Each structure stands twice: as C-alpha cells, then as structure tokens.
Amino acid sequence: MNGPSLALRQRSLGDPSAEFPLFPPLTRGCPKTSTDEIAYPLEVAYDYARVDRGLFTQEPGTDIARWSPLLPPLEAPTLGEGGTPLLPFEDVFIKDESRNPTWSHKDRLNRVVVSAAVASGAPGVVVASSGNHGASAAAYAARAGLPAIVLTSADSPPAVQDFVRAYGAKVVSVPPEARWPLLREIVDRLGYHPVSNQTVTHTGHPFGPEGYKTMAYELFVQLGRVPAAVFAPTGYAELLFGMWKGFVELQLLGLAERAPRMFSCETASGGPHARALATGAPAAIVELGPSDAYGISGTVGGHRGVLAVRDSGGEAVLVTDEEMRRAQRDLARQGMWQELSGLAGVAGYRRLRRDFDGPVVCVATSSGFKDLGVGTERYPVLENPTLADVMS
Amino acid sequence: MNGPSLALRQRSLGDPSAEFPLFPPLTRGCPKTSTDEIAYPLEVAYDYARVDRGLFTQEPGTDIARWSPLLPPLEAPTLGEGGTPLLPFEDVFIKDESRNPTWSHKDRLNRVVVSAAVASGAPGVVVASSGNHGASAAAYAARAGLPAIVLTSADSPPAVQDFVRAYGAKVVSVPPEARWPLLREIVDRLGYHPVSNQTVTHTGHPFGPEGYKTMAYELFVQLGRVPAAVFAPTGYAELLFGMWKGFVELQLLGLAERAPRMFSCETASGGPHARALATGAPAAIVELGPSDAYGISGTVGGHRGVLAVRDSGGEAVLVTDEEMRRAQRDLARQGMWQELSGLAGVAGYRRLRRDFDGPVVCVATSSGFKDLGVGTERYPVLENPTLADVMS
C-alpha cells in the first residue's frame, strides 16, 4: 500500500550494538546478551532516513499495511485490523481495540507475526494461549492458509474456548505447565513458527510489538499530536513497548517534539513489571494471586515493559479486580462493554489521578464477551408483566 | 463534521405524495395510507440539490457523522460506528459489520434513532429485542444519557442476555407475546421513544434505515464503484432497504450510473418478504418454523424489503440453517467468525450462484460470540500430552 518494508535487521534490547539479520526471527531472545536468569528480547531496526513523512497525513483505516514502510514485511493477508476509534470518556480518551477482526488488540501483533511465519516458509504456527492471542493467531494463520496449533488450558471462559476453536486450528487443552515443553517440541520437531514466548523471562516474538506501533501512529493522527500519557493493560508488556517504540519513532522522524509517559497497568495479584521497576532488575518473575483479569495475569515479566516505563518517565501501576470492575461498569454505562483485563488502563489512570499537560489515552483492549462468568447467569422471566412491574 | 443535516421531511412509502414534517418521527407508520392489514413505513426526504459531492471522496471512518448532510440530525453522540472493512472471500466481498461498537450493524441504525429520541426531547427509549438491536439501543441511549427499557425474551443465548444488560438499561425478560402491548404502554404513558416496530406489518422507526445508507456510501468509496449485487441477511429488511436507498441516492446525485440488485436472504423457516414478493402483496405475515438464526427469524415482514428487492431487480432467497452453518464454518476458516444469522447473505449468494457483471457484496452483520450454543460445550483436557497426542 505504502511501499515496501524499510526493516533492516534485528537488534538486541540487551545491547543495541548486538545486531542480527532480519530473518530468521530470533524467537528465543538475544543469543548474545541473555543469561540463565534474564532473557533479552530483540527489536526491529529500520532505515528511517528513507521514511516518507507523508505516511502520517493518512487517516487511520482498517489495514495496518498503510504503515508498511515501518513494519516488517507483511506477507500474511489482512483481516482488516487497526483503524479503531478514539472515544472520549470522563477526562481521557479510550482507544477501543475491541473493534479489531477478532475483537482485541492482538490482531495487530498477529498480522505481523503470522507474516513472519509465512516469510520464513514455516509449515504452520504454534501458540500457547487460552484467549485472545490464541484466537487471533488462529484467525490470521487460517487467512494465510497456514495450519495452526493452539495449546490452551481449561480455565478460560467456555465462550472463549469456542472462539479459539472457531477458526479451524488444532486446539488442544492441556495442563498449564505442559504448554511450554510441548510448544518447544512442536517448534523443534515440526518446524512450526512460534508466536508465544519460549524464554525464562518474557521475550516473545521479536516482530510482535511492531504491530502495536501502529496504535501510536493512529493516536498521533487522531489527536493531531502525541498524547501526554498512555495507560495500557499490561501482561507481557508487548503492547506498552510497541506503542512506546512508535512514539519514539515519531520523535526520531521529527514529527513529534516529545513522547508520552507510558504507564504499565498490571493486576495487583501479580505485577512482574512493577516488581522489576521497583527493584531495578531488567525483568522479574513473581508469585501470582487470584484475579479474574485472566488476560493479563502472569508470573513472568520481560525487559520491554521495563524499558518503556523507565525511558518514558512513566510508572508501574497495580490495580485490583474491584477497580477494574468499577471501570468496566462505568465504561459500559457510556456504551462501551469491555473485557475486565482490558480495563486495567482505565483503572490505572483513575488510581493515579495525576495531572498531565495534554491528552491522556487509556487503551481498552477487548470485548466484554470474553470475560469469565459471561453467560452463566439466568434471569427470571416476568409472567403477565404490567407497566408497574417493568418500572419497579 | 460535514455540515448540517439536509433532511427536509418524512414521506410515505405507501404514497410518495403523502408528506409530513420531519418531527415528530411517525413511529406507527404512515397515517394516510396504512390499512388494518398493511402498515406502510415512512422514509426521510432530503434537499439533494444542496449536497456537496465532495462528501464521497472521503475515506470511510468510524463515525457516520461524516455523512451528516444525508442523515437526520445526529443529536446523539457517536460510539465510533461505521468504517467497517470490506474483505475478499471466495468470489465475493464481505462487509464485516461485526466491527461496530456493539459488534453488529445495528449500531448504524441506533445512532440515528437514539438521535431522534434526543431531538424529540423524549425522557427515554424503549425497545423490544432479545439480541443485537436491544444491546445497541441500550449502548447508544447510555452514551446519550437517556434511560432505556429493553423488553427481552428468555430464549436468547445466555451471553447475549448479559450483553443486553451490560449497558445499564432496565432489561425485563417477559413472554414474547407480552412485549408489544407493554412497548405501546411505555410509549403512551411514559412518553418513551420507541426504537421497535408498533404496527401490524413492519414499519419500524422512519429514520432507522437512514443509518444503514452509510453502508452503501462506504461500499461505493471502498470499491470505487457500486457493486453489481448485494446479499443481505434479512429479518425486517431495514438493512436491505437502507442500503438500497443509499445506492439510489448515489445515482440521483450523478455519482453512480446504476444501483445494484438487492437480494433479501431470509431463513427458510419463515420468509415473510419472499412470501410478499411471490404473491405480489405489499407485505406479508408467515408462520415460522424452527431455526437457530434467531437474529433474522420473524413472522412479520414489511413493505421496505419488498420495494428494495422489486425496484432493484433483485430476488428473495431463502436459506436453511445448514447452509448458514456451512457459510459460518467456511468464513471462520478464512479468519472471520460471524453469527449464524449474519451469514444468510453469504448462504444466499452461494445458493443462487449467479453471474453478475461486477463485484458482489455479502453483508456479514455480527460476531460469532452472539450465537446460540456458544459456551455450552465442554472440551476434555489432555493430561500428560505428548506430541503424538497433539498431532493425532
């Protein structure tokens, strides 16, 4: 759409002087800087000198290929991801990512990582996920004509299990701890391209956050400037880091004078990025308490989120299920029904209640249909109803 | 966004010379031409001479206010409706309406009819619906700060019942036959604005299809021309008629040389529009057999669908649940998981398999999350899984 990819190579986030060819994507972290305790992710470097700034006069729309010069090669077909609306709510803006092809932000990432699988000539993709990520990967693989294996666990909501299975992937429900060794075996023995993490601390796919950069570009166009602060639901922090990278690029290209402060919003039941930032570690692993925000609850953090928060002058915020539920109710009463996990950003902003010198964006990542408990309640039928009954 | 509404007045679809002021919206059909057996709907007339054709050089985007000159006044705030992608599938294009604020096409209608409620100074809106329409009306009412009453029945899927309730409306589950007298009472005694039909054959809200016109405009911009044929899931045919009207306007404005043939795709279990067209009646009421396509299954048809099919040289198509299920499976295997009802258009096209001298569009109206049976299956967990198990 807008010219070929200007992606040059992979670069380590552990040491920017450690560079690698663009292919194959290093899906087990940086081989030079990672240790037994900390795995460092890679990112993609571009030939920024060749970027046409006219790219940023486009309106957002439903195909991230409009930003193709600043993405890895998009070899997988679009399902119409991106171009999501920005809606005012209280004193912030909501970036409504439930409006993507599989009704979550994950579609931006999966367009890019399934493209990497296609470009690599892989015979299929494999993903360990019980929710949005697994369904999205299955959808993009199906669209690209690639077989997909989804290793899921039994604890996701029943409707979400149907969702993950809808796209024709091979979906296998296994005990949570069995997922990672199986994933590795499928990668090693079948040559499937992994779209899930394989390292001790999270590194994920080196191309993944590139898809999320498009949200930064869209926000810049939608607001006519970069926001002062961004609050994002944070599990592995690929979303937070991806947006941060996009804003940094806008600065680098001379289009924006500054980048926003980035706020990672994790569940109070865990919070590996908050822990790493508090202790000064490059990444952390924590114990996990109970939370219904299953989409962002994890024990394992990564270095990307630490970089985004620290380098942007942001903060790590921990939010309770109760705070997310309040955000969920209040947003629904403004016409937006979002998944509980997807409201950690709104809950985080409300908890902090800081003044910012410019617009604040909270990312809402996913549809309310994906929540635990949806469809479990039975409502009574009012036989012979009168107006008085209805109004009572 | 693009200037004020050029809406002039209401006009009867029973007799175009019967005209009425734009307000109040005549929500009980045309008072001049309706009889005890057939109720005639009204439509909105515009001052087409004043329409700036530059309107149609805009890209589609997530707010139908970009077409405001050709819509009734939009007094209710947007939730970011419209701007949905057009995706190739086999030899047709899919207009993916699951990408709207409440994940169905209904949002286009409800932006417009809730605006009518706001403009009328109504103290609230009332709707009889068990699914997408009720949830969408509740969402737009919530966004506009208007109370909403949703009269629902107990037979919709449990997840959809949560969905309808999420937006803070007063939702009352009543026996299906109790809905219409209650609706009328709420309108008459409380002054609530009705966003559901109140007449013997369907007339609905006179402004409703105006919202769907925006799909015709978007298709014209997305394809760079009007399609040769459009296949739409058809319940009350507001969608079909609305799109038809939009295409006719494009012709009237000299932007298109022809309008597409419009195909109403109803469940074989009923099909009031097919009946009316077969018998030459202005509208029909039929008996209804069982179907899982609850979103488009109804006994009562209206005159709008008859006009759209007849005047466009289209046809009425009846599709079975089995045909819709096949379309559902095949579309999901291309990465699009749609509601069963929402696939009547694809199923209808496949049943007809006609050659058209130009692009064919099938509207897919809603997300797969809204189907009957979603979330009811339990999948076994594979304990101690091996690679051989996964691949078996």
UniProtKB/TrEMBL annotation, chains A, B:
It holds the Pfam family PALP. One of its GO terms (biological process) is L-serine catabolic process. Keywords: Lyase, Pyridoxal phosphate. Its cofactor is pyridoxal 5'-phosphate. Residues 78-365 form the Tryptophan synthase beta chain-like PALP domain. Gene3D superfamilies: 3.40.50.1100. SUPFAM superfamilies: Tryptophan synthase beta subunit-like PLP-dependent enzymes. GO terms for molecular function: L-serine ammonia-lyase activity; threonine deaminase activity. This is Threonine synthase. The lineage of its organism: Bacteria, Bacillati, Actinomycetota, Actinomycetes, Streptosporangiales.
